[in-house]
Amino acid sequence: MNKDRVHLRGSCRGGVERILDLILPRHCIACGLFSGAGNLCPLCSAELPRNLAGCRQCGMQLPLRSDDLCGSCLKKPPPWDSCIAGLVYHFPVDQMVCRFKFNRALACGQILGAELLAAIENSGCTLPEVIVPVPLHRSRQFSRSFNQADMLARQLGRGLKISLKPTLLARCRRTSAQSGLDAAARRKNIRGAFSCRQTAIRHVALVDDVMTTGATLAECSRSLKRAGVATVAVWVAARAAIE
């Protein structure tokens, strides 16, 4: 009986969505043309800069798919253990990220989350016990009432059937915005900004929208490992090239 009810709800929801698509057809968020039932038209979807050859340690785009690690990770690996980046931070991904983060464009977030989910599923990686979003400081969370990393993490949790632990990692110090700072300034700005209580969880996926220098993710990873986490996988929607 319960299965029948769930199936009926799903059918009704799908029917409502199809009717809405007919009455209010969607437009592609990249080019503005009609996009059918999706938020991207087929052409723009096909042209998304997917990160098909990323360094398995930091996600940086590599020239050849056969390469496993970039030169930087061979010399000095980051404090996390692996990285999956769904997209490269080029147009139109950069605009999607900004619209999602600063304008709460949920359609952009859904695309970013779907691309990251597909990259994770295609990677064949060992899935973690829990997913942890990079947290905001409570004052910033209150003023914005929106954490893009948390939204992405929830989408991944539903898709992969993995529970979230959004309170495992806390931002204990408010910092300046990382944008506009060079790599050294970013590391200094974020140092000591996170805390994590002792935990028996051994494998965590740390989720954020974009990685540039990786300073924030590195600080989060160190906090998690100090608290007892053995393996930290970093999952980001987009990987930016370091200027």
Structure in words:
- The protein has 243 residues and is α/β, with parallel strands linked by helices.
- The protein folds into 2 domains: 1-47, no CATH class; 48-239, Rossmann fold (3-Layer(aba) Sandwich), CATH 3.40.50.
- Helix content is 42%, strand content 17%.
- The chain has helices spanning 2-23, 42-46, 71-75, 93-103, 106-123, 138-144, 148-160, 183-190, 215-226, and strands at 26-27, 34-36, 82-88, 130-133, 163-164, 169-171, 194-196, 203-211, 231-239.
- α4 crosses α5 and α5 (106-123) crosses α7.
- It starts with a helix and ends with a strand.
- Residues 5-10 have low confidence and may be disordered.
